[in-house]
Amino acid sequence: MSLEKLTIAQNIYAASGVDSNVLSVNKFGRNPSIAIGVEEEIWDGSIAYTFPTDTSDITHVRSAVDSATTQGAVIEVQGLDTNWDLVTQTKALDGTDSTTEVLLDTPLIRVFRMKVLDAAVMDQDIWVGDDDFVVAAAKAIITAGNNQTLMAIYTVPAGFNAYMTCYYAHVNPGTNLDPTSMPIKVWAQDNANGYAPQLKHVVGQISGGFQHFFTPYQKFGEKTDIYITAQPAGKAADVTAGFDLILVNV
Fold first, then answer.
1. Which H or E run contains 78?
2. What CA–CA distance (Å, rounded) separates 102 from 60?
3. Which of 42, 194, 195, 201 is in the most buried spot, having the most CB atoms within 10 Å?
């Protein structure tokens, strides 16, 4: 099935979820403080992101700080299992001390979204990672107040091709967050073939925002990590970014 020239109707069909062979993915993230001269992914961690290399590297979820609000909160974790297949699972944080690590039902090689399934707004960050991990080793973070992760990072599941329709970025204004130059890049690493990361698009942006549309759509194969980075010069930066994908089961 070729998606290079999808119609609006086909895009709506993909987003409807009526056919599990054609799926839509909207990824969006924010890095509120990208260090000067450092290339960082756009995600909640505000440090360079490290993809797991162990096939079962993501095993536990916990809160950064214990609170009455986070105790027992139900967290949805979306990612890929050791076979690179899509897995969505829910786990309740420890009801007595939410900093106690809770074991996931299915170990993951990738995680690209977490959500809070609770009526309360979380007042502490929530992390997912391996056993006895610290924040620097977290693979996804729900920042307090957001109730879901903000990460412009995604990995194509096994058996799917992904077609990127567009991506965007915005430089958020703030005190001492106005770089003199900053490339914003789309990267892809094809893990199925063992390739190093490849640069797929780059835009220089120091203020405001942009949206780039791919015509034809940019295609990525299964097990490919897709992510957006920014590297500010002169001063640090606060960047929002994201991308849209159509997934097709092949």
1. strand 74-80
2. 5
3. 42
Q: Are 85 and 69 in contact (CB under 8 A)?
A: no
CATH 2.60.120-classified regions of the chain: 8-49+153-249
Give me the CATH code for the 8-49+153-249 domain, please.
Answer: 2.60.120
Q: Which residue has the tokens 């034809």?
A: 216
Q: Which two tokens stand for residue 185?
A: 């890049």
Among the ranges given (11-15, 44-48, 129-133), the one the predictor scored with the smallest mean pLDDT: 11-15
Backbone φ/ψ region at 78: left (φ over 0), alpha (ψ -120 to 50), beta? beta
pLDDT tens digit sequence for 204-226: 999 999 999 999 999 999 999 99
